[in-house]
Amino acid sequence: MSRGEAPTRVLDAAEALFAQRGYHGVSLRQIAQEANLAVSLVQYHFTNKEELFGAVLGRRIAVINHERLSRLDAVEQRSDAGRPRLEDVLRAFLEPTLLFSRDQAQGGPHYAQLIAQISNDPQPHARRVSREHMDPIARQTIRVLAMALPHMDEKTLTWCYLFAVGAMVSAISPAGRVRTLSGGRHNADDITELVELLATFLTGAFRAVDTAASSQTP
Hints:
Elements: H1 5-21, H2 28-35, H3 39-45, H4 49-77, H5 86-101, H6 108-118, H7 124-148, H8 154-172, H9 177-181, H10 191-216
Helix pairs in contact: 1-2, 1-4, 1-6, 2-3, 4-5, 4-7, 5-7, 5-10, 7-8, 8-10
């Protein structure tokens, strides 16, 4: 094994274990065993479990954020008189995450499990991931949403963004709730269909809130 292979082996092992057992259900020793490495080598590359957890998610979120930023930039460039289409902004927000969550080769299913675990977790390991990897792209997305919805106030827009995140996390969750609630008749395997449905749902929701807010403005 080359020196450069060890961090990847640690990240892969940690990702699988964190997804299966949760953050608190995994120790550095178990991760080392899964990676077939000494604990000291794991700690050489990652000082503690919180740092390792952040690195596990950070490498996946970086791929998604790069794609989302690229799409948001394209939406801004296509905007009419500085006002991008709301649906285009929401698709730029949704599609990178939904598509990645189905990418087996890139660890998408594990990523979906981990995001579901930390999305509303107030503990330090989860907040660190949000602060370092998610908040910057969230602010960029909200900025472009504000261009599409110029009359919506900042507080309302931020809440709507968070509601959209919740819907997206639910959509990529591996819990299989659609199959369960439909008695096994339906599933979420068709990612194209899922993107279309969620984009339509969120576009309608944002517009409904915007219309309600506008009607209350004196």
